[in-house]
Amino acid sequence: MGEGFAVNPDEVNSHAGTVDGFAGRADTAVDAGAHVTGLDDAYGLFCRPFGEMLKDPQQRGVDTLTETATFMHETVTDLRDSAEHYQQVEDQVRAAIEALLEMLERIAEIPMVRGGN
């Protein structure tokens, strides 16, 4: 049987912060791509036909980046929710163990009564 695993909610939250930073970068890339895709004169007057040819591939790139950014933001939310859930479970288990220890201490304090023959 395996030895199980341990989860440190603080480390999960820290990782969520790192992923959130990358999600912000993806948002910036989406904004930049959308801006360039919408420009009619980004390549100059004589090269405008080439810009039109690139519009669809650029839009597909923007769409892919948008999906990536959305997925990353959802992952951040999921990571933070998971960290919170692990912390809640840990707190519940800790409270149950502390209650059991208190009960055992009270039982240990009860004097023993011995009957005689």
Q: How would you characterize this protein structure?
A:
With 117 residues, this protein is mainly alpha-helical. It has one domain (9-107). Helix content is 79%, strand content 0%. It is built from two helices and no strands. The chain has helices at 9-38, 48-109. Helix 1 packs antiparallel against helix 2 (48-109).
> What is the averaged pLDDT score?
89
Which regions are unreliable across 5 or more consecutive residues at pLDDT < 50? none
Number of domain units: 1
Return Rg in Å.
30 Å
Shape: rod-shaped
Distance between the termini: 51 Å
Helix and strand string, N-terminal first? HH
Biggest pleated-sheet summary: none
Count of strand segments:
0
Write the layout of secondary structure elements.
Layout (H helix, E strand, L loop, with lengths): L8 H30 L9 H62 L8
Features:
117 residues; mainly alpha; 2 helices; rod-shaped
Briefly characterize the structure.
The chain is mainly α and 117 residues long.
